[in-house]
Amino acid sequence: MSHSVTIRTQTMTTSSSMIVINTGYLKSWNGILKFLQLALGIVCVGIIGNEFNTYLRFAPQCFFLVITVTFMISTFILLLSCLMSLSTASIISKTIYELLYHSIALGLLFAASLTLLIHITNYKRYYNYELLLGASICGLINTCLYLFSTILAFRTYKGF
After folding, report:
1. pTM, 2 dp
2. Separation of alpha carbons 158 and 96, rounded Å
């Protein structure tokens, strides 16, 4: 029994001064979700940071600010590492890190957004009520994005 075999070889030359950006990652669901999470995190931090009252620091505003800044920076680092390395995106998605990261972000961001939402709806006399309401709603939308990322991370980790 005879059969033909095709062998393909690829030669790749790298230089230490060359920076390779993995633009294909932004076309995947993981890349799109991380980019949207980062964008909504920037919006939330911008709103709550601008409206943060230095004289009357309310615990829900502080909690929301700390959680949002934490996961915005972490998502930026994760997105940057997946964009700067060709192998990071494929390796890190198969580990339990993404599953744990997204599930913890989901829980904490949901708690912070819901706490802020309940606090500002109970006290509607804030002069910046609409902006704080918008920040908490953006946080809840970001929570939904982290939920989708958790589901994708679970499916990738379990190999479904």
Report:
1. 0.82
2. 9
